[in-house]
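Field reference: "sequence" (input) and "structure" (output). Example, ATP synthase subunit b:
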Amino acid sequence: MVPTLSMTKAMPLGDMVFIIVAFLTLMVILKHVAYGPLTKALDARADKINNDLDSAQKANEDAAKLAAQREQELADGKDQASQVISAAKKSAKDQSEALLKTANDQALSLRKAAENDADQLKTEALASAKKDVADLSVTIASKLIQKNLSADDQRSLIDAYLADLDQQ
């Protein structure tokens, strides 16, 4: 037969006091040996989790600030790049205009020099032609009148004719 609760006899008072004392002693020992360190470990774990959450939140905020700063720097960089490009375009335009002006000035001066050279060559050619015509005229005239004039008369006639040409 299996004993049941109603079948058991009441426990003597000495045994009950012993069990209570043993239970309380066990509870004190468990509190110091198991529950205390377990509570400390759980508190430390909770503190670490809270610190990790705070650190993660702070890192997230820092990352957001850094991203905003990077975007601002990127926008500033784009502005600076557009300013540099604008300055380069203006500089290129100014240099182009200066080169065109210089080229036009040089072409004008070359044209004027060429005109002056042409005028000088024309003057020299006319002078040479006058001299050649005079020499030819004298030669023809001397051949025509050679029979009637002496050599001295021919020379004086030529000198007079040349003097007339130089005055013109």
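Helices lie at 13-145, 151-167.
The chain has a mean pLDDT of 83.
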